[in-house]
Amino acid sequence: MTSKEIEQLKGKAIVFYDGTCGFCQGSVQIVLKHNKQQNLYFAALQSGALEALVPTQQLPEIMPDSILFFDKGKLYAESEAALRIAGYLDFPLSLLSVFRIIPLSFRDFVYRLVAKNRYRIAGRTESCMLPSPAQRARFVA
Question: Which superkingdom does the taxonomy of this entry point to (predicted)?
Answer without folding.
Answer: Bacteria
